[in-house]
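=== RUN LOG ===
request id: a7f3
mode: sequence -> structure
chains: 1
length: 179
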Amino acid sequence: MNKTERYYQQYMSHRHVSRRGLFRAFVTASRNVAPPPAAIPPWPLPPGALTTAQFFAQCDKCQQCVQACPMGVLITHQEGFPQLAIEYASCDGCAACIQACPTGALQPQPRFDTRLRPVFTDACIHSSRGCDRCVEVCPQRACSVGESGLPKADADGCNGCGECLIQCDRQAITLHSVL
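=== RESULT ===
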């Protein structure tokens, strides 16, 4: 059937949509639409994790990766999945978690990367001086001091180990997930 302009005119001539009905349709339509799948995980995943959707589909919450981590930076999230928690120790990329994973949700990486990157706040420095501790301790030499006096991280050189976060005594660094 060819739907022409005449068809739509006839269709709408006997249909009445009130303003209230139109408004209700807009409101309920937004509730019924499923959100797009998250590309960035809801919490930091272990090193070597597959894409977010694949990881959650394959991980069976066995916790073998958590038990295998010698640094203790993998913990169990409240939903039972492993979570990378760089708060008191940095991740050294030993790959023990990857080797312990029986489901293949964690895969060996050609280059170690936690997919976390540091973000520096202005609480980091006093206007006349900074400590530069993050620059000194970065094993990848990815941190440097910018023109503003605030540290910055080279996203390509950084592997997200978290050493800068651990060494910062001013709590001026947070780690954010990247793809």
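=== NOTES ===
Residues 19-32 form the longest helix (14 residues).
The helical segments are 5-13, 19-32, 52-58, 64-68, 96-100, 133-137, 163-167.
=== END ===
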